[in-house]
Write a structure and sequence with these properties.
The complex is a heterodimer.
Chain A lengths: L2 E2 L1 E10 L3 H14 L3 E7 L6 E11 L10 E6 L2 H7 L3 E10 L7 H6 L2 E5 L1 H9 L5 H12 L4 H12 L4 H22 L5 E2 L8 E5 H11 L4 E4 L6 H9 L1 H4 L2 E4 L3 H14 L3 E5 L1 H17 L3 E7 L16 H6 L8 E3 L4 H18 L2 E7 H5 L1 E5 L18 H6 L27 E3 L13 H18 L7 E3 L6 E6 L3 H14 L3 E6 L1 E3 L3 H9 L4 E5 L5 H10 L5 E4 L8 H8 L8 E3 L1
Chain B lengths: L19 H15 L7 E5 L14 E4 L5 H11 L4 E7 H7 L1 H10 L3 E7 L2 E2 L5 E2 L23 H8 L3 E6 L3 H13 L4 E6 L11 H7 E3 L11 H8 L6 E8 L28 H9 L3
The chains are: A alpha/beta, B alpha/beta.
């Protein structure tokens, strides 16, 4: 019996060989065929060479993460064979160009099928170019899995349209030839099949694109920043839509200028943001406090990568949480969101602008490399642009300003929120400063003024608790194991819960999608309800766990921690719960 | 001409009696009054230091930023609302020390802002350390044997970095300075106005008398052509014997940054609506991911 629409394909090779573009292209063909997709990208900090891979999981059910088991490996280099053949399940295949040299014995011993094809030769003879070898490889995968060629034809036509008719024709010829040869030679000997499920259109996108879309939907009209992996694609996507949506995008001379230019735009009354990774956030620290002190609404994204210092520039981690919660000297209100899915990235970004303007303070979205780059297919209506409401908080309108007398930018109010005027109205000429200030914004060092302003600012944080979302539960109410996680590990944890609930122990998940400020009494009640708390984080010290301990007094029973820069998988989590040792993962009592 | 009193702030200054900042403050007020720019039509952006308290002492919109970081904020403000007259006031430590990176990029970027550097060759607010423009040999608590480094020359630097308006004024000549500031405001692009000013408390070398004996007026030299970059570069080196004040260089041919941003052609960003995109636009975006 064939196994339909339940497989993982892994493409491995050097940077510059088209690993990512091939993977993304094939994923799109599958998504268009109505198959659910999760695509994981792994790359090194270099332009050429090294070793990269792209892993596509295809399924008949919606998927939130990758799995460890690979069913088809496409190595573009001998290194890719060596690095990944052990991940291929017995009965799975290695589809390779016949020129790639490796020792087949251990692979055969494991029960792998070795499908060698002259892919380069096919590319040269049918298409006239060696570059088309990737097309040959993907045509062959489609042939072996008996996937409807019409979808391959469609994606080649879409992807190469810009390059002109002859390129499209060449690639189509190569794909078709490889498809036919591979299907003829190997399809009968391969169990896994891909079957189109025509239905409603789905989007295939990554977390950074979703954040950018959420920001656009929320009326963000300004982004300034300095390129830094893995946050850069937010700046790039906003640039690509600058003309359509009238967004001013400014690449600045450094991250310090990146955040401050956004602060300038925000002060002028435009919805503004900046995005960076941990190193850039370190440079932001002083300006972050300035935004808090001057009550400037600002949306910031920290797409985390392995730290400290330059760390692992192209690898993932969740190790900035403690830093972001405390970054900058002194005390001021801040809001920290931690979306864990594509949909949450979109909604968190849209929501961040409302929270920033309501509380007139910085809002930080915690992102990480895995979620920045991984693609997932979602139903189109999951991103509901028209449902995004723009709430500008206590921003004074022109009519309100016409009537105002004695304007005080930092007026002490019960809520702590002061009516905000954008500079430019004759009735609201004001100064403000990063120094402690009076209600009017003038520098002061007086004890009573200081206390009044400090309390006013911090009241906003107390008030913001009412808007913050408590952790979500996934899985049954009653469970032996309750995972505690935040951000991009959601997919792996969700799948681990599903796997464990098939044959035990019973598991559920408490997922923190928003982290600061929270109603700690309620969080404590949620933690109290759990039988055994298992913290899962991608860092060394268990930063969320430490935060929960500090604010709720609850300690985690177990901590599953991973800090090698690779995303944690559902399989690793399940194995850890079941007591199997995985060297990539640390399990503490 | 507006009444200068319109710009009077209720705040009392913390500057020392005789400080050059008073002359600079008066010149800024004069320039705004001369150009009939109302307090709500401009914003004064400053850094940290004695001179950077200036926005508190003038009735106008003001934004008093971190040390060294006034320029990026000023540029964000200008990009978001190019109807505002954006005037930056920083000290020499702010502009030529900690904020040097932003300075050079602001010059080549050429947004329409005026940058007044209150240059007293001293860190005053921290009580008298040497600054980037302190002369070699200048003795302070952090340079007890005399400053070893060569001083920053903001004039040659600005020419090299591509500033389109470069001038130098003298705090003790507020009328002349007001005229320079007004010219800087009217100039379309980044305008640097380096202002020589005494620090009466800490700088006992570059005193008011010292400056007075050194400055001469460029506009009194009929042979001087401020549009000639090479001539400007030569004069920009003058310091030890005599110091030129006035407009050193101007280039009216380079467009401003903001004039080249298509998104700003429809008017200031802050005046454009945030929403109003119909479902067909969102559907088009979604189709890019299908």
């Amino acid at each position: 019996m064939p196994i339909v629409n339940d497989l993982t394909i892994k493409i491995g090779g050097e940077a510059g060989q088209g690993v990512e573009s091939s993977g993304a292209g094939f994923a799109k063909a599958l998504a268009r065929a109505g198959i659910w997709i999760y695509g994981l990208q792994d790359y090194m900090s270099r332009i050429r060479g090294g070793h990269n891979f792209y892993q596509i999981r295809a399924s008949d059910q919606e998927v939130w993460t990758f799995r460890d088991a690979v069913h088809m490996l496409l190595p573009f280099t001998p290194e890719a064979v060596e690095r990944h053949w052990r991940e291929v399940v017995p009965g799975g295949a290695v589809l390779h160009d016949t020129s790639i040299k490796f020792d087949p014995a251990p692979l055969r011993e494991r029960g792998l099928k070795l499908f060698g094809l002259p892919l380069l030769k096919i590319a040269e003879e049918q298409g006239g170019s060696r570059i088309m070898m990737n097309t040959a490889a993907l045509g062959a995968v489609a042939g072996i899995t008996e996937f409807d060629f019409a979808y391959i034809d469609d994606i080649i036509t879409t992807n190469f349209k810009r390059k002109g008719g002859p390129i499209v024709e060449g690639n189509l010829k190569v794909a078709r030839y490889a498809y036919d040869v591979a299907r003829e030679q190997f399809a009968a000997d391969y169990e896994w099949k891909l079957v189109a499920r025509p239905g409603p259109q789905r989007m295939l996108l990554n977390g950074n694109q979703a954040i950018a879309l959420g920001a656009i939907a929320a009326g963000c009209r300004f982004i300034s920043g300095y390129p830094m992996t893995p946050a850069t694609s937010i700046l790039e996507y906003m640039n690509s839509k600058a003309h359509l949506f009238g967004i001013v995008c400014k690449q600045t001379e450094d991250e310090i200028s990146g955040i401050l230019t956004a602060i300038g735009a925000a002060h002028a009354g435009v919805r503004a943001m900046s995005a960076t990774s941990g190193g850039g956030f370190s440079l932001w620290a002083e300006a972050l406090g300035f935004a808090g002190m001057t009550e400037t609404p600002l949306v910031l994204v920290d797409s985390q990568r392995g730290g400290p210092s330059t760390g692992l520039p192209t690898r993932t981690e969740q190790s900035d949480l403690a830093f972001v919660l405390h970054a900058s000297h002194g005390e001021f209100p801040r809001i920290v969101l931690a979306p864990g899915t594509i949909e949450e990235c979109f909604h968190a970004a849209a929501r961040a602008f409302n929270l920033a303007e309501k509380y007139q303070t910085p809002v930080i979205i915690m992102q990480d490399l895995t979620q920045s780059n991984s693609i997932r297919s979602i139903d189109k209506d999951r991103l509901d642009f028209e449902a995004v409401r723009i709430d500008r908080g206590a921003l004074l309108t022109g009519e309100e300003l016409d009537r105002i007398e004695d304007y005080r930018r930092h007026l002490v109010t019960e809520s702590g929120i002061s009516p905000r005027a954008v500079p430019g109205h004759p009735n609201a000429v004001y100064v403000t400063t990063g120094d402690e200030h009076t209600e009017y914004g003038f520098i002061t060092e007086e004890s009573d003024e200081r206390r009044a302003q400090m309390q006013k600012r911090m009241r906003k944080q107390e008030l913001a608790v009412q808007d913050m979302r408590l952790p979500l539960r996934y899985g049954p109410e009653d469970a032996d194991v309750t995972f505690v996680g935040w951000g991009s590990t959601y997919g792996a944890l969700r799948e681990a819960v599903d796997v464990l609930n098939l044959d035990g122990p019973r598991a559920n998940l408490l997922q923190f999608t928003e982290i600061w400020p929270l109603d700690w009494e309620q969080v404590r009640a949620q933690l109290d309800a759990a039988r055994s708390l298992w913290l899962v984080e991608q860092n060394y010290t268990g930063q969320l766990g430490n935060l929960l301990r500090a604010y709720t007094g609850k300690a985690m029973d177990k901590r599953i921690l991973k800090y090698d820069g690779r995303p944690i998988s559902a399989d690793e989590i399940v194995a850890s719960v079941r007591g199997e040792v995985r060297e990539e993962v640390t399990v503490h009592a | 001409m507006l009444d200068v009193k319109l710009f009077n702030s209720p705040e009392k200054s913390t500057w020392c009696p005789g400080c050059g900042d008073f002359g600079i403050l008066n010149a800024v007020k004069q320039a705004l009054a001369m150009l009939e720019i109302y307090p709500h039509e401009c914003i004064i952006v400053s850094g940290i230091g004695c001179g950077s308290k200036l926005p508190h002492y003038i009735r106008a919109n003001g934004f008093n930023i971190l040390h060294g970081r006034a320029l990026p904020v000023a540029q964000g403000l200008k990009l978001a609302n190019h109807d505002l007259n954006v005037i930056v006031t920083t000290g020499d430590g702010d502009g030529y020390g900690i904020g040097m990176g932003h300075l050079v990029h602001s010059m080549r970027r050429n947004l329409d802002i005026v940058h007044i550097v209150e240059d007293n060759q001293t860190y005053g607010l921290t009580k008298g350390q040497y600054s980037p423009t302190s002369d070699k040999g200048y003795i302070t608590t952090t340079s007890p044997d005399g400053a070893i480094e060569q001083a920053v020359n903001p004039m040659t630097l600005a020419i090299a970095a591509g500033a389109t308006f470069i001038a130098r004024g003298f705090a003790s000549e507020p009328k002349h300075l007001a005229k320079l500031i007004a010219e800087g405001i009217q100039h379309k692009g980044y305008a640097l106005i380096d202002v020589l000013q005494p620090c009466v408390t800490y700088n006992k070398v570059n005193t008011n008398a010292w400056y007075k004996s050194h400055v001469y007026h460029l506009d009194e030299d009929p042979g001087y052509d401020p549009t000639n970059r090479f001539m400007a570069f030569e004069r920009a080196h003058e310091w030890a014997e005599k110091i030129p004040v006035g407009v050193l260089y101007r280039d009216e041919t380079r467009p401003t940054y903001e004039a080249q941003v298509p998104e700003l052609a429809a008017g200031p960003l802050v005046k454009q609506p945030l929403d109003g995109h119909g479902p067909e636009v969102w559907e088009k975006i979604k189709q890019e991911f299908v």
